[in-house]
Amino acid sequence: MEQISNLLAKLKNQSPLVQSITNYVVMNNTANALLAAGASPIMAHAQSEIKEMVDIVSALVVNIGTLDEYWSESMLIAAAHAHAIQKPWVLDPVGAGATPYRNEVLAKLLEFKPTVIRGNASEIMALAKFNIQSKGVDSSNSSDEALEAGILLSMQTGAVVVISGEVDYIIDGDRVAKVKNGSPIMAKVTGMGCTASALTGAMVAIEKDILLASTAAMALMGVAGDIAAEKAKGPGTLQLHFYDALYALEPQEFGKRMIITYP
Questions:
Q1: Chain-centroid distance, C-alpha 221
Q2: The overall pTM is greater than 0.90
Q3: Cα separation, 220 vs 38, whole angstroms
Q4: How many CA atoms lie within 13 A of 111 on its CB side?
Q5: Distance CA 226, CA 236 (A)
Q6: Cα 161 to Cα 27, 71, 156, 223, distances in angstroms
Q7: pLDDT tens-place string over residues 3-36
Q8: What whole-number distance in Å separates Cα of residue 195 and Cα of residue 235?
Q9: Which residues of 122-155 are buried (b: 16+ CB within 10 A; e: fewer)?
Q10: At a CB cut-off of 8 Å and minimum separation 6, what does 43 contact?
């Protein structure tokens, strides 16, 4: 717990540069969340500069939410280069299983060995080739149901797998952590999962123990959500208070509020 809370101070002190090739819906949200937490965001997807950008950042986040042919090629170039130079990168498989095209792009991205795969239960189950019908960006399965799929996917890919839900699971092969923080209202704010992926990118940029870094990211997400929900009147004000919570949260309070178990 102390190691995880100390990562918050480390994040604010180091302010790692995190590149996000992400979707149109959440660019502003994720950039603001990274800034509030202490990281430095850059949203760059131009193919003419993508390799040079991956060279200078501390971590890469690839989010396939608003997928198209140009962006998918940018994602593949970035992921391939990150893998080649051993730069940590996070894959957010938004809508995995929804369409053949989306699955095809994801299959290619997985070849470049993401450091972390973070998705909802349905997305993780689809990636692990469980026979379910994805509902798009909303999960029709609980994170508890997806645990077996997450363990399988982690073993298949070598990645740490994060399953977001009422309970968040962070899986590294047979090592599993559970984070129980977070408010149900967060599900009513678009892009919260994408924000979790961005914060995971920030944490893996500063911590080599990827299970620890990913657990810290999900705990930070959940604790900030808890604090925001205490002040919010609904989804709109929750988002505002969420950024404020990320900005103001201190390691001591973070340590007191986080609810993490290792089953």
A1: 10
A2: yes
A3: 12
A4: 11
A5: 15
A6: 23, 24, 11, 20
A7: 999 999 999 999 999 999 999 999 999 999 999 9
A8: 15
A9: bbbbbbbebebebebbebebebebbbebbbbbbe
A10: 19, 20, 21, 22, 27, 31
